[in-house]
Amino acid sequence: FYVKASYKEKRLEARLSLLQSAVDEYSKAKNEFAAKATEEEMRLLRFQRRLEEDKGEHLMGMSLQDSMQILLSVGLHKQAEQLYKDFRVPDKRYWWLKLTALADKEDWEELEKF
Amino acid sequence: MAAHLSYGRVNLNILREAARKDLREFLDKCAGSKAIVWDEYLTGPFGLIAQYSLLKEHEVEKMFTLKSGRLPPADVKNIIFFVRPRLELMDIIAENILSEDKLQTPREFNILFVPRRSMLCEQRLKEQGVLGSFTNIDEYILDLIPYDGDLLSMESESAFRECYLENDQTSLYHTAKGLMTLQALYGTIPQIFGKGECARHVANMMLRMKREFAGSQTQILPVFDTLLLLDRNVDLLTPLATQLTYEGLIDEIYGITNGYVKLPPEKFAQKKQGEGGKDLPTEPKKMPLNSAEELYAEIRDKNFNAVGAALSKKAKIISAAFEERHNAKTVGEIKQFVSQLPHMQAARTSLANHTSIAELIKDITTSEAFFDNLTVEQEFMTGVDTDKVNTYIEDCIAQKDPLLKILRLVCMQSVCNNGLKQKVLDFYKREILQTYGYEHLLTLNNLEKVGLLKSQITTRNNYPTIRKTLKLWMEDANEQNPNDISYVYSGYAPLSVRLTQLLARPGWRSIEEVLKLLPGPHFEERQQLPPGLHKKRQQGENRTTLVFFLGGVTYAEIAALRFLSQMEDSGTEYIIATTKLINGTSWVKSLMDRPDQQV
Lengths: 114, 599
Known about the structure:
The structure holds 2 protein chains of 2 kinds.
Chain A lengths: L2 H4 L5 H17 L3 H24 L8 H10 L3 H10 L4 H15 L2 H6 L1
Helix pairs in contact in A: 2-3, 4-5, 4-6
Chain B lengths: L12 H17 L4 E5 L1 H8 L4 H6 L2 E6 L12 E6 L3 H12 L9 E6 L5 H9 L6 E6 L5 E4 L2 E3 L5 H7 L4 H17 L4 E5 L1 H16 L13 E6 L5 H4 L5 H8 L2 E2 L2 E4 L21 E4 L5 H6 L4 H20 L7 H35 L2 H15 L8 H8 L4 H14 L5 H15 L4 H9 L13 H7 L25 H10 L7 H6 L4 E5 L16 E8 L4 H12 L5 E7 L5 H7 L4 H4 L1
Parallel strand pairs in B: 1-2, 1-3, 3-4, 4-5, 7-15, 8-9, 9-14, 14-15
Antiparallel strand pairs in B: 6-7, 8-13, 10-11, 11-12
Helix pairs in contact in B: 4-5, 7-8, 12-13, 14-16, 16-23, 20-22
């Protein structure tokens, strides 16, 4: 159950495998929520790595919300949209985010479209 | 300088003097000049016991903070480490000593553990091969530190976390020990009441220690009539609510540590002509806050809405006093006026300071965000819509407001609803994790473990019952001239203080039913007094109760207890003791797990 403490310290691949063992422990402990959340975390990490390789944006270790914000502010709308769908982000929160991110950038055109 | 400690009903200066005496004895044990290496955390609490001047009298020449690497050079005979018994600190000390030896003249090393020496730490020093380098290893028993005329604290930050999350009862042992010290100085406390698991433990330990010392009875007339031990988890709600007394708000907004507050300097810049704007102080202004300051003692516990009026009244009195000089005719009168000047000057400065602070706070309390937050809190406390996802919290998360604020609100909703529906709870948790990062999963787990967050298992919500029977919500709280303790939260009467009030009158027997709804056992113990020490109570004399909060107390609760002491017909005066002075933010923070910070 307490593998969770260790998984913070290691990096990258090691981190993913540690997370996987955390998931296993959580399921054993019948803590469904935590297991699912940790799985989600792994998914996000993989996504972030892919993006880092493709676009050179540094996202590793950021929260989902922050990742989406960065994506929006550098104009990678498609990727942000994908996160929004993949992680079933509530509409309300995503709209708030999109509004503020676009307004900060003063990207009124994109805002119109939306 | 410590005069304010002796004004109260119980002279707490005795305790402070005893602590100072112990310290002096230890310092004298190490002959010759010395340098103290401080565990940084301890400097604050120590400042309340002994100023630098006292240390200097005992040949303390240098002071350093403990850090790894080599010790700074100092031409002294003794090095004394003042540390908490923590393993990671032992490693640092070992490193200090090992990098030392090759240098010039050998120095003597001493360790003073606060508040207890620990086998584990000594073992660690031995492993590192440095245990033999110490001339003296000693403990300095510092459990309860007097903060004010009626307030004692152990300032042990993690006490709540240790007791309720990690099941570590060390701090309970310290508490029991501290209470024994107190009884040695102020006489045996005849009656002990308590509510909660930890309270039970502390009482058991006290009674056991008492038996061990049987025979060495103290022949002191008891000062305290009753001791009330309260677990923090009996009342989880109160610290979550925003405190609305003057002192409480200062703590909520700026944070009070060890009786000092740090304020933004802009408001206090000295406006001197000629050098205006040249050197504005950039350091935050540090101000002591205690009842030694006459004005502060008067307004600290008022509801903030009543502070403005009190300040302006005071301003009028002071300017009237200054006006009096025109009426002074004879030399005698003038002389008398001049002799009062320093006092009046001080009063004027303190008035100016507090007016500035009040202005700073007012800027915040009148803001929309503060008001919205308060509205939601009050809705929860009155039981409005506590079973659904709250839109305000949702919006706050979407805007990424400080996580601590969110956690406070969510926990509050959970406590007021006796747990949240699984669906609602999962929604909040998901929102928090996605917005603030998955690492907070650990924090959420902690909160669930101590009962601040939970999913509703039974369909019955007993919070409304508790609220009604104990009258926790008063519709018409009078903020200006309070007639009930609910003024400290503008409507909500702290559960903990209500329990204290009911204990004094009419007694807990009348609320058995409700007590059963709250966690932990409630109990009553009596301690035998040696014959001849039974206090003969004079007519109209008040009883004195020591209320001990295990796991922390807020300034608003203290204010409420002071208010009870002052009520004419209450018949009881309260002295407050706690493991730590807290507010909702610092409290929730102590429960957080931040792996990134440990690295």
